[in-house]
Amino acid sequence: MTPQFHSPRLVRSAVLAIATAGLLPVPAVLAAATEASVQAHVDAATRAAGKEYPEYLGLCKPASATRPAAGSIDLAGLIARPAPPPGAAFDNLVYVGGAWVSAWALKTSDGLVLIDALNTVDEADRLIVGGLKAQGLDPASIKTILVTHGHGDHYGGADRIREVAAASKPRVVMSEIDWTMTETQLEFANPIWPAPPRRDRTRDLSIQDGDVLRQGDTMVTMVVTPGHTLGTISPVFEVRSGARSWRAVVWGGTSFNFGRDLRRLDAYIAAADRMREIARTEKIEVLLSNHPANDLTVSRLAALRANPSAPNPFVIGTEGVVRTLTVIAECARANRDRFEMMP
Ligand SMILES: [Zn+2]
């Protein structure tokens, strides 16, 4: 197929007009939070999860009321966990991430879109560059580095990939909000993470909600889903295997690690509710994550390797996506109510 464009570019989207028009930021009247309301949300999440979709139920546990201090997680230990082998989840989507954080490479007729860049230069070299080569892909063909949100586990390797793929002059893509956050007041800093990518205002792209990245034959619709960071991007795109294709989304930020911030949780809830509506209207059947534990990346890749002709385990259907986003939204509501009840 002939690429329509010679370099990745953004166009304003009409694709999400319906879903965007229906967006209500915050309900006008909120019932008072009580132990019972917390439990009702946990119950709703548990029902939505059923037996099939328990992966996100951990979000219903009480979130910390304070932002985790730098150094409170064992970052080095998480990074040191042995990485799974790289592998194709779909014909056009390859996993090149680690055991803790994901990196996905989306193939287009005009090079690769890398979705997230892992923690460090070493991970970029070993997992992204090494993984792409092992999958028969050329790391120098990366033309877009999409950073789902401005935390170091997703941008740490970005500048390294920019060097590796210098011949393709890759653009780093972040939301305007998260570019600003990383440039002015980084939410999380850790000496293990390199500095955030420095924005090249002549090349790098700043995303607003609904923008569409066009690269070759591929369109990636950028849905801004504020919460985990205020400018988290959840990209929507098509995945293909053989003659079949499906709509997929990467939920761009998951945990409630910002402390007792009710407005932020309200934004998260609105974003999860909205994405659920987009999943319905756009018939999204694949819900991916940027942390492999959330979407069972490792076991699903292993299942695909063991039995390539079986139904693709990443395809959970629109009902599965809607139910999982319901788990996420209801757990957010449970934690919102817990925070509201605090003196
Ligand atoms: Zn994060």
Q: What's the CATH topology name? A: Metallo-beta-lactamase, Chain A
**Biggest sheet, open or closed, and with what strands and sense?**
7 strands, mixed
Give the CATH architecture.
4-Layer Sandwich
Query: Which percent range describes the beta-strand content?
Result: 15-25%
What Rg, in angstroms, do the CA atoms define? Answer: 19 Å
Number of helices: 10
- Shape assignment: globular
Q: Hetero groups bound?
A: zinc ion
From the helix content, strand content and strand pairing, which structural class follows?
A: alpha/beta
Plain-language structure description:
With 343 residues, the protein is of the alpha/beta class. It has a single domain (9-341), classed as Ribonuclease Z/Hydroxyacylglutathione hydrolase-like (Metallo-beta-lactamase, Chain A). Helices cover 34% and strands 20% of the residues. The protein has ten helices and 13 strands. It has helices spanning 17-21, 35-49, 75-80, 121-134, 152-155, 158-164, 176-184, 262-282, 297-306, 317-341; strands spanning 9-11, 87-90, 93-95, 104-108, 111-115, 142-146, 171-175, 205-207, 212-215, 218-224, 233-241, 244-251, 284-289. The strands form two sheets. A seven-stranded mixed β-sheet has the order 2-3-4-5-6-7-8. The chain has a six-stranded mixed β-sheet with strand order 1-9-10-11-12-13. The longest helix has 25 residues, at 317-341. The N and C termini lie far apart (61 Å). Residues 1-6 and 14-24 have low confidence and may be disordered. The site of zinc ion has 4 residues, from loops.
